[in-house]
Amino acid sequence: MKKFRLLLLMPVFFVALLAAAPRGGELRLCLRGEPKSLDPLMVTDEPSEVVRYLTSGILLRRNRRTQQLEPELASAWKVGNAGKRITFHLRPDVRFSDGTPFDAADVEYTLRRLADPGLASPAGEIFRTAARIQRFERPNPLEISLEFASPVSALEDLFDEAPLLSSRSPIKEKAVLGPFRLAHYRRGVSLRLERNPNYWKVDSAGARLPYLDAILLEIQLNRDIELTRFRRGELQLISNLDADSFDRLRRQAPGEAVDAGASLESEMLWFNQSPAAPIAEYRKAWFRSRAFRRAISEAISRKDIVRLVFRGLAVEAAGPFSPAAKFWYNPRLAPPRQDTESARKRLAAAGFRRREDRLLDAGGHAVEFSLITNSGNRNRARIAALLQEDLAKLGIKVNVAALDFPALIERLNHTHDYEACLLSLSGIDLDPNDQMNVWLSSSSHHPWNPRQAKPATPWEADIDRLMKQQAASYDPQERKRAVDRLQEIVYEQAPVIYLVHPYALMAVGASVRGTEPSALKPRLLWNAERLYLERPVAGKQ
Amino acid sequence: MNSRVSRAWRGIAGGSATVAAGVLLASLLVWLSPGYGIDEREADPTLSDATLARLGADRGRGPLTVPRRMLHGDFGYSPALQAPVGSLIAERGPATLHSLSGGLAMAWTGAAIGVLLGLWLAPRARLLPDLLAAVLLAVPAALVSAAAFLAGAPVSAAIALALFPRLYLFARNILCSMESQPHVLHARAHGVSGRGIFQHALVRPALPELAALAAASVRMALGAVIPAEAICDSPGLGQLAWKATLGRDLALLAPLTLLMTGITVFANMLSGISAGGRTR
User: Fold this and answer.
1) Is A434 on the interface with B (CB under 8 A)?
2) Which single residue of A325, A461, B70, B238 could bond B225 by disulfide (Cβ 3.0 to 4.6 Å)?
3) Domain containing residue A396: CATH number
4) Could you read off the pLDDT of B79-117 as tens digits, one per residue?
5) Three-class SS of residue A207?
6) Candidates B35, B41, B49; nearest CB to A44
7) Tell me: the pLDDT tens digits for A65-81?
8) Could you tell me if A157 and A282 lie in one domain?
């Protein structure tokens, strides 16, 4: 009888356990712009990326803390044939938000759409270039194998960013597999995501995830307003704070300021070496001179940039990979230390000479250049001011021009009418393949000399070769060797002068639990299904 | 009466021309601005040239495209907000109307209280509203809006604070000039009560000019609504205009300019007709 009573009590205990699980509430945060597309396959910008991340299901996920791959909708996977084949075993009984079942046919449908050149999905770029799928095999509804034309480096990583669609749902891409689904969108104002009732994941106690009822993403371009509203308790998370705001928040509410260490972003400077640039030939000659670029790099005090611009919340940079990219970072390369004397000697050896307080080239031209950057970025304006000061010690005059972003892109990509540019490389992922367009000399994103018919210098040919070599190999160590060598060439030739890697700074409200801040994007939302509020905020419909 | 009608017609014709010129000028300025038509996705290093070309990174349309479409009743599609312009304006119109009406009501109430304090109750009491108006007049509308936002006040309060000094000073000057008229001084000398003088010798003759000021206050409020909504983060037409400008969204900016210019011209016309040529 006692046993019977215990059995009767078990469901009650289970219900009580579920009730005790942290559940409910609406998390509020801001997007820094309007999402350009809500179609998960057509995402290009960061706001759309956040929405995609919160709503779409994926096969594998890279844990943003450990940087290790974890199973998501694929419960297991196996890479074979030296990186040319991958087999996924899918989770059973998974349904899209509208109740449509999920199986291998959906995976094939999604990948075929991603690879469709007519659609030109940005998320599927890699499936149309380096990772062309030759054959799909579906031995049963929960297993799918993909055969690629050639070995694919970082093959599993491709599936961290491939949002899965339903091949059968009547509501098409609106049927989602992620923890949330779009409930309401007010253009220019906000998006409300509500819990996906069919989300497959459960926590260790067996409670269905996500814990939150909803996430309200408000569209807010002004960072000061965002911080003010956070301090008032109207917002609970800020995924990206600048050093000034972080410092202010750290003094006002130390427990709410979160520093995840160096981010993947780099502040960098480069000179225009494009033959098509409408600038004087003697200036182009400076910019093509390795000695000139190395001297500029040596004359800059990265330590001052870290201290004065980022309030100590950045790390000096030596190359394109920050310490946040644990595997790819090359610790053998030390950031150049400011050495004005050595920079002077380099310039003298290259034919530059000093007259009074000005530096002259061999032809007697005073060395002076304009530096463009984007307007509205306080940190970059301060870096430019420090560069002016540092280079004045060499007798070089720098004129800074801040342009708004479209005008800047026009100069960089279309007219090439600039001399030097100070900008950040952001929005890239861990894997070097994400920087393929930056390093290949034929690419339009190759910063200092885009769209080269053939590499202009032997070291650029080396960079091209190394990038292609690492992209064609599935062996991580072989790839690492190639990427290390690439970093060394960039360090020696300084076509891009890396300055600092800013820290990933965030704000987490006192009521938010379950966050695992990471320097990798989406920094605070990568485990959104496990976030909860200690004092839930009732959501407005 | 006839002169009023002809003035009204002249106002409508002039107003229409101003609206058309405003739209053309706005379109031309945006079109000529550096970087117009550049797709920011071009800066994304993860996208290849082929993908960018397929995504239709267009280099922008001519300055006449949008005005020409609007003439045919097509307000177009906002590329920045990915929505029809008509629906965006319809969505945000009520918020702005609410802010504007609240701001105007508060500003007029404040101005009326200030004037009454000075003129009717005790002339020395004028010092307080004078001082407040002088201070607020010296502060830019954007700063007033920022202060309102930090204090958690609604947008209407920011608009009211921007309008109050202008309304108060105009209304006070109008009534003061009436107060120094010979017939008012004569009535005072004969012991007519202050209330009687206020009603019959000050307010009633000043009514046309006050009506003109009321119409002009709509135009002033419209001017204040863009910084107020942008800074106070209120999703109205002002914020939309701000975002359209930042995003070089010509398709959205042109109809918004048309709307704002139309309201301003209409308010000016009313103001002119009400004042009957006596505005100062």
Assistant:
1) yes
2) B238
3) 3.10.105.10
4) 777 788 888 888 889 999 999 999 999 999 999 888 887
5) coil
6) B41
7) 888 899 999 999 999 99
8) no
